[in-house]
C-alpha cells in the first residue's frame, strides 16, 4: 500500500519541484536510511508495520523517479532503449544483491566484514548512501538542463 501512495506522491512532488526528479529521489533515499533505523529497532507491532509502510512509500518513489529522470536525458527516439537498458541493469544488479548478497550477509557469511542482521542493515544503509551519491550527479546534470531550458525559453519569449 505504501508503494502505491509513494509512487503517486513522489511523482507529484517532483512535478512541484519543476522536474527536479533526481533531487526529490535523493530526499527519499535519505529518508530511507532513517526509516531503516526505525524498522531495525522497532519494539512493537505498530512501529514495525508503520515503518514497513514508510519503506514501501520511500522505496518505490525513487524507483519511479530514476526511470523518469533517465528518460529525460535521451532523445525521444531512444527512450525505449534507454529505459530498457536501465531496467535490465537495475534488475540484474539489484536483484542479485538483494537475493544473494543480503542473504549471505544475514546468514553469517562475512562479506566486506559484515555479518548477521546488523550487517544486513549496514549494507542497506551503504547502498542507500551510494545511491544518493550517484543520484546527486544526475541531479546536477538535471539542474543544468532545467536552467538551460528556462534560459532558452526566456530568450524565445523576449
TrEMBL record:
KW Manganese (keyword) present: no
Main location: membrane
Topology in membrane: Multi-pass membrane protein
GO terms (BP aspect): phosphate ion transmembrane transport
A GO term for molecular function: glucose 6-phosphate:phosphate antiporter activity
Keyword entries, A-Z: Cell membrane, Membrane, Transmembrane, Transmembrane helix
InterPro entries per the UniProt record, alphabetical: MFS_dom (IPR020846), MFS_trans_sf (IPR036259), OPA_Antiporter (IPR051337)
Listed PROSITE patterns: MFS
Subcellular location: Endomembrane system
Span of domain Major facilitator superfamily (MFS) profile: 1-145
Recorded GO CC terms: endomembrane system; plasma membrane
Regions crossing the membrane: 20-39, 46-74, 117-141
PANTHER family, A to Z: GLUCOSE-6-PHOSPHATE EXCHANGER SLC37A4, HEXOSE-6-PHOSPHATE:PHOSPHATE ANTIPORTER
This protein's name: Hexose phosphate transport protein UhpT
Provenance organism: Klebsiella michiganensis
Gene: uhpT_2
Amino acid at each position: 500500500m505504501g508503494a502505491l501512495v509513494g509512487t503517486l506522491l513522489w511523482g507529484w512532488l517532483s512535478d512541484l519541484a519543476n522536474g527536479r526528479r533526481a533531487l526529490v529521489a535523493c530526499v527519499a533515499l535519505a529518508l530511507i536510511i532513517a526509516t531503516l533505523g526505525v524498522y531495525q529497532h522497532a519494539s512493537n507491532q505498530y512501529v514495525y508495520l508503520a515503518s514497513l509502510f514508510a519503506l514501501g512509500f520511500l522505496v518505490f518513489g525513487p524507483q519511479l523517479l530514476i526511470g523518469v529522470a533517465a528518460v529525460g536525458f535521451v532523445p525521444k527516439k531512444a527512450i525505449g532503449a534507454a529505459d530498457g537498458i536501465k531496467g535490465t541493469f537495475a534488475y540484474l544488479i539489484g536483484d542479485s544483491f538483494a537475493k544473494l548478497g543480503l542473504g549471505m550477509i544475514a546468514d553469517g557469511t562475512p562479506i566486506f566484514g559484515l555479518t548477521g542482521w546488523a550487517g544486513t542493515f549496514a549494507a542497506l544503509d551503504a547502498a542507500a548512501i551510494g545511491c544518493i551519491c550517484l543520484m546527486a550527479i544526475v541531479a546536477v546534470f538535471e539542474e543544468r538542463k532545467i536552467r538551460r531550458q528556462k534560459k532558452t525559453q526566456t530568450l524565445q519569449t523576449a
